Amino acid sequence: MAQFMNSKEALVIEALDGLLRSSGGRLARLDGFPHIKVIVRNDWEKSKVALISGGGSGHEPAHVGFVGAGMLTAAVCGDVFASPSVDAVLAGILAVSGPAGCLLIVKNYTGDRLNFGLAAERARAYGIKVSMVIVDDDIALPDSPQARGVAGTLFVHKIAGALAENGASLEIVAKAAQQVIDNVASVGMSLDTCTVPGSPKEARIAEGKAELGLGIHGESGVELIDFTTARDAMNIMLERLKPNIGRSINVALLNNLGGTTPLEMSVLAEELAKSEVIDDIQYLIGPAPLMTSLDMRGFSISILPVSAQGLALLQAPVAIRDWPGCIQIEAPRIRPIPDGLTPIKSIPSKDPATANFVAHCCDMFMEAETELNALDAQSGDGDTGATLAGAARALKASIDQLPLADTTQLYRAIGLELSQTMGGSSGVLLAIFFSAVGDALSSGMPNVEALKAGLARVQEVGGAKPGDRTMIDALGPALDALPNGFTAAARAARQGADMTAQIVKAKAGRASYISEDRLRGHNDPGAEAVAKLFEKMSTISAS
Amino acid sequence: MAQFMNSKEALVIEALDGLLRSSGGRLARLDGFPHIKVIVRNDWEKSKVALISGGGSGHEPAHVGFVGAGMLTAAVCGDVFASPSVDAVLAGILAVSGPAGCLLIVKNYTGDRLNFGLAAERARAYGIKVSMVIVDDDIALPDSPQARGVAGTLFVHKIAGALAENGASLEIVAKAAQQVIDNVASVGMSLDTCTVPGSPKEARIAEGKAELGLGIHGESGVELIDFTTARDAMNIMLERLKPNIGRSINVALLNNLGGTTPLEMSVLAEELAKSEVIDDIQYLIGPAPLMTSLDMRGFSISILPVSAQGLALLQAPVAIRDWPGCIQIEAPRIRPIPDGLTPIKSIPSKDPATANFVAHCCDMFMEAETELNALDAQSGDGDTGATLAGAARALKASIDQLPLADTTQLYRAIGLELSQTMGGSSGVLLAIFFSAVGDALSSGMPNVEALKAGLARVQEVGGAKPGDRTMIDALGPALDALPNGFTAAARAARQGADMTAQIVKAKAGRASYISEDRLRGHNDPGAEAVAKLFEKMSTISAS
Asked: What is the pLDDT of residue B225?
């Protein structure tokens, strides 16, 4: 089983109960559960127009997450990707409709249309005022007689919800909802399919490809396109939406289809804001998971042109956690960097031999990126190579700015550069090392002794001792052997690094969390990097 | 590239800018970006104790998502899973600390400890009052000298944040933070590893297995265990946390590690609430993504025993969207089902031959579940088999309650049963079919004519015509051939079903969204189900 569930039959039932238990009393379910899966506001008094939406589950937070004052009155839930029954919809209508009547907001799928439609008919026979709107915002298939209802549905919930909350009549609420439907357009893209509980996952979208124009039920997208960058993806989507842009105010809704990380969604928001394809989008809802497709690694954009009144309804506050609000897109605000932080730069000076030496060392780290990452993946998060290569790239790029002719200042400058460009513990520790070596040299200490002083400071701050499976296990022996030349130092570093593969009880750093058999036989990546550095230095000094 | 990004180097930088653009002016970043990635409250006036947290990115909404009144004043962000630099932390401290000083809330990782620690030292040299606490809530490795900081950090943010917001002194805020750290315990579990941007995904956890006791940086869990159900998973986790439970009030924080769907998280909340392993948890934060590990399909639980004052601080309102609140766990509230909905049950009667016939037909649908699902996956969401098998199971289970001796009532009863147990469009349409056949029979129409009347009503409501690639393409020919017996009907149904494989322009149902080459060569699952039913009926009637 690839999901945290007890059985696929009980998934939605147990999820709804879990949600109710953690709703703080805001929500209730109707009796008749689990055949009838209707979640209602617990504070509802039937004095206003009721809003009912729903459909298959698997689109969370839609629809239960939007039940609350200012949005939905009730959500009628089916099983995963399956419409609820007529009885369930009818129960929902009967439970929440008062004299003001109710509006059914239905996405354009045959099952939902049939079940909600027949329930509406049966409810009208009871004398209840029922209106129904069908959302069909998907523009992926321009010629389809049956455009799907996707994330644009949220605009309908919010605008109709705000009107109903304000006490508008059913006629006005339904008319406004239909107007949103007439104007809203959505399109989706995904890098991977969703995992339907209880079914094997379809490996449909190859690496480097994306599906464009896909729905929210795992069905294939209309087109398989090459995926390059977030920027291209966003621009392709906006190009499709361009004909649906309005003349004055346009609101974009940026929806996470489920499995996209917040980092990626924020990058997409940045690309949306910066795009020149559509430069008339002033307001944004999201990025957030709103109408998802289980764990689908994709996103959708919906665009709604609105009047000032429509915008006000979208911005009306609601006490619904899953509603991200509708905010004006703006440039990032910047606060000044505090005084005294800007470091004093050393004065650049030239020394071709030193420049060459430093450049070659930097090259070595760039070349070893993949290998060191792989080694680190055994014991940590696999970023040692990337961290070192990134710092090496930055150092090499700034080589002309270094005080190459002044060894003392050079150590300090490298320390400063590393402290600014290198994250992680290795970044600080190397910065401390280089700064301390510079300090020692400035006090007149000879070269090798100064390097050892740097190592001592690293041990003091970092807390690691020889034998703890860290870079110290290579650096210590190398410095001890350095008086005998680079070749001897390289040999000692290599021996020290290789010995770390036998140390399976790491006592410092991230490796200390890892089980012994994962560590055995793999060198510590930091020690390995030191060994590689000394090996490189011995070849440079020999050439 | 498996992520929506432009490059792994720009990922965090662009994500932060995207987040700022969509923050509605609540947040700003410090100058010095992107080397210095510090996000601060834009309304901060340094009149109270400042709270600074941060660390590597990839844990969203932590930490930027919790910047705001009542929680953090600033978040210092590193690259994905990499600590920010000393300079970045120092910039954050200098930017937000006033006379009341600041508290650094740091998770116990070497890099964060070093960078935040050295920055604190440097800030103190500027005369700033700085305290620092190290969160080490992970209990996965009981003997580790270096327990990791994970989702329990949120308790520290919230309690220290509420105190600082109330105007408490740095000493009091730091002491309360340390007290939370002394008492909080967390443990995590995952079904899959996370995808580190720019690195290939490690396929580490086999199907049917879960890692228990894992951190938030993709490192392996302490134990690989068998995964069976959400219930077992929850009880295993709670068993580990049992020694950390307090005597009076206990608050659980249920954290989505990133890739778990809301449905699954709600099931886990339900299991947490129902578990007998710990029956003293009265309050819940979540379920929600709070401290994630990119897209990791896992969750963690943190437990904090609190005093009444601690609970009040956890419940103090904040205007931070990503904070789910701290609510009292309660039983699901239930509202009565409205009058008039409970359907009138028909009077059961016996007829062994009919019972046998119905039971065999039900068996057929149960056996065909996988095959029909696979067929439906070609054109839809792969649930036709499951939907039909579910209804068949329910129908077979209620066979003794059916009016088996009264054909007219039997059709109506089956229609009613299907309308209650079967979701999706097929559920309604079959319910309509059986009800309409019952109505026709009751008006004295002969059998085959009544069945045709049922089909006509289905076409009328559903809107599908022959040749539209629906079950009608098998049912129509079968009913036409039925006067010649079941064998002839079965043959006609089979021919009609097989013909649907050639219909590549579906005009109704979900198949109408699918491209032609995905449909070609595959029978419509509804038509195939009808063909199978008639084939089964011909063997029953022949036996």
From this structure: 93
CB B264 within 8 A of CB B287: no
Token code pair at residue A324: 């991200």
B34, B127: one domain = yes
What's the whole-number mean pLDDT along residues A110-119?
86
Task: Report how far apart, in Å, the C-alpha atoms of B103 and of each of B52, B168, B170 are.
Answer: 6, 12, 7
The answer to whether the CB of A387 falls within 8 A of the CB of A423 is yes
Contact A510/B219, CB-based, under 8 Å?
yes
A18–B270: do the CB atoms touch at under 8 Å? yes
**How many structural domains compose chain B?**
2
Residues of B in contact with A198 (CB under 8 A): 386
A345 inside domain: no
A143-152, A236-245, B148-157, range with the lowest pLDDT: A143-152
Judge whether B241 lies within some domain.
yes
**Which of B3, B110, B199 is facing A508, going by the closest CB pair?**
B110
Q: How far is B526 from chain A (nearest CA, A)?
A: 14
Same domain, residue pair A434 and A471: yes
What pLDDT does residue B465 have? 86
Nearest-by-Cβ selection for B381 from A218, A231, A425: A218
Of B27, B262, B22, B18, the C-alpha closest to A285 is B22
Chain B's closest residue to A16, CA to CA, is: B266
Q: Report the catalytic residues of B.
A: 217
Q: Summarize pLDDT for A200-218 with one digit per residue, the tens.
A: 888 888 889 999 988 898 8
Q: What is the dihedral of CA B49, B52, B53, B58, to 10 degrees?
A: 130
Give the domain range for residue A135. Answer: 11-196+205-328
Residue A274 in any domain: the answer is yes
User: Looking at the annotation, which residues of A are catalytic?
Assistant: 217
Q: For residue B9, how far is the Cα from the chain centroid?
A: 30
**What tens digit of pLDDT does each residue of B362-400 get?**
999 999 999 999 988 887 778 889 989 999 999 999 999
> Would you say residue B336 lies in a domain?
no
Read off the CATH number of the domain in which A414 is found: 1.25.40.340
Closest CA in chain A for residue B263: A15
One-character DSSP codes across A114-170? HHHHHHHHHHHHTT--EEEEEE--B-SSTT-SSPPP-TTHHHHHHHHHHHHHTT--H
pTM across the whole model:
0.79
**Interface size, chain A vs chain B, as Cβ–Cβ contacts under 8 Å:** 480
Contacts of A229 in chain B (CB under 8 A): 1, 5-7
Q: Which of A74-88, A106-120, B203-217, B372-386 has the highest mean pLDDT?
A: A74-88
Do the Cβ atoms of B273 and A18 come within 8 Å?
A: yes
Residue A512 pLDDT > 80? no
- B69 and B190 belong to one structural domain: yes
Using CB atoms, which residue from A9, A15, A25 is nearest to B333? A25
A302 three-state secondary structure: strand
Q: Which of B411, B401, B409 is nearest to B432 (CA)?
A: B411
